[in-house]
Hints:
Layout: H1 2-10, H2 12-29, H3 48-60, E1 67-72, H4 80-94, E2 99-104, E3 121-128, H5 133-146, E4 148-150, E5 153-158, H6 160-194, H7 197-222, H8 231-259, H9 264-291, H10 299-330, H11 351-361, H12 363-378, E6 386-387, H13 399-410, E7 419-423, H14 433-441, E8 446-451, E9 454-457, E10 460-464, E11 473-474, E12 477-484, H15 491-501, E13 510-512, H16 514-548, H17 552-577, H18 582-585, E14 593-594, H19 597-627, H20 630-659, H21 665-697, H22 706-715
Parallel strand pairs: 6-14
Antiparallel strand pairs: 1-3, 1-5, 2-3, 4-5, 7-12, 7-13, 8-9, 8-12, 9-10, 11-12
Amino acid sequence: MRVVARAIVRYRILVLVVSLAALAAAAVLGAGVADVLSNGGFSDPDSESVAAASALAEDFGAAPADAVLVVQAPRTVDDPAVAAAGVALVEELGAEAGVASVTSYWTLGSPPGLRSDDSRQALVFVDIAGGGEVVLDVSAGLIEEYRGGRGELEVLVGGNGPMFAEIQETTESDLARAEAIAFPITLLLLVFVFGSVVAAVLPLGVGGFAIVGTFLVLRVLAEYTEVSIFALNLTTALGLGLAIDYALFVVSRFREELGTGWSPHEAAARTVQTAGRTVLFSAGTVAVSLAAMLVFPLSFLRSFGYAGIAVVALAAVGAVVVLPALLAILGHRIDRLRVRRVRPVADGEGIWHRIATTVMRRPVPIATAVVVLLLVVGAPFFRVELGQSDDRVLAPGSPARQVGDTLREDFNAFEGGSIDVVVADSSADPAGAGSLAETLSALGGVARVDGPNGSYVAGALMAPAGPANLRFASPEGFYLAVVPSVDPLSSEAEGLVDSIRAVDSPYSLMVAGQTADLVDTTEALFSTLPLALAIIGVVTFVVLFLMFGSLVVPAKAVILNLLSLSATFGALVWIFQDGNLSELLDFTATGTLNLTMPILMFCIAFGLSMDYEVFLLSRIKEEYDVTGDNQRSVAMGLERTGRIVTAAAVLIAVVFVAFATSGVAFLKMFGVGMTLAVLVDAFLIRSTLVPAFMRLAGNANWWAPRWMKRVYRRFGFAESVELDGPNLEVEPSRA
């Protein structure tokens, strides 16, 4: 780091020119990144359900309806005038650009399942030609054109296409609102923390550098792989949060070095060697946690890995390279536009020093009380129920949500959530599908089975085949549509999929549909989870060992982080699964948590926790190497980082709270969960459990077997700071 520090200070003007040019290029080339990102990526591409869906599309020209319209009539939908108006609506929809086909209650022979319990509502299904942005654009047009009154009919527009169109629109507006909330509040808090406007602007500059650069990275990646549009939210939140963390640490260390009498150039170089080194290792631990998401088969999670690694790397570059170059130029002018004087605290007199010494005087009772509190808060996580999100992630008044609520409340079967059983075998005789349909219709949780031979209920033929049943057969085989009587995203429906797959049949069956997709996605995630956890745990442990030369410190850090996160996840179950605080936070509880959110939040929160851990431990180790006094080192380390970590936690919490205002429920959960994780870690873990356990361990904190000490001496990252005026070869100050 010594060579790097000297180079950054020596070529500070060049560093800033190149950085500004790169930022400008990224802003131009990365503009419009949202237009090339995906709304999908929630399924395992190698799963049976995806293969079955592909067979449905290729062999039968069948696919889940992209849009579902609920047509409400003033009288029964079988009334001739209402039926005529319904058929006219179907014909009008079929003539719309981008619409591939339209089916409805009236054109399919009036099946009872497509009629509401009171017979005053009927369903229309719309298939859209194309995918991705085409579906979203056409769906948005259908909402605008057809929602509302049409003669004596009232039309609601929903389904997957309109739902994702609304989610995309809501997400983009949420992102703009979050930025509008977070940036000014963050700036005001930074002015208060630093006491000057000039110093306060620097972290936001680093954040802008990281965010804009990551947008370009995502745009490039989207040309080669699927990247989720939700990665933009993480980019903004994490980019701004980490930039604040790193810049706070760097700027505070720079001011500290200036305060001890070093010149601006010397102070900047010393800052790179000390705080810069810590930032790089901190960024490395965060990046490792985020990189673990790359092993999951879902492109939704991998997208957060791409965005997270990029924004962490760029935030670190901005804080360790660009920021010190600017500090070397600014020098003492960093305190220009001062609004208040931040007085340095004498050693041993700060509030964080007093907190540390108080905890270390009574480590056992304090640690016990905090651990019990965290375990109690985390206990609800033992009864977590994981599922997939549906239209209820949107506000109750949204078009797609209205359709979903109507289907759940007014129809006795879940027509839009059929479980499709595919027999992709050209030798299979569709005439033999009847016995399979009989068997499936007798299973618990099945309302009806439609197939090439007709419709079956409770193990018996209810209606013979008609023209609409021709779609269930092709030269490639046949398929059956199992209409569930239970919520397609419920545990009962998951059990139904398992029962269907266990049916003894002469055919090779593949199961498609959103319930089968939920079952397969859950299996894919949890089969990959141990590998992801192993990557996070092992690499983090190794990096911390190479940084501190201890076995105890990495083990303690991992254990405390897991304890902190368990409390966060317990709170999420209590809030978002059980529905407590739902009115205050304005969301609808469904009895489950989105199955990708705990994994995503664990990777991010674990990385941020290690971020704070590295900041604190680096100062403790620095003091311990000088004094050899364990208790003094812990107290001094907490004193010198407590204010910074607290400020960083509050500032990043502001960013996440802004995202908690989202109109999409799982993004709201992400914002609330990350806010809790950051605050619990900064205020409980760092201020109580870390000093308590380090006091109890004593000098054993830095213990490792002799052979590992030899490894550390040879490969470790320890580096002393040896700078003085005559030895620091930099150009004369131009500031």
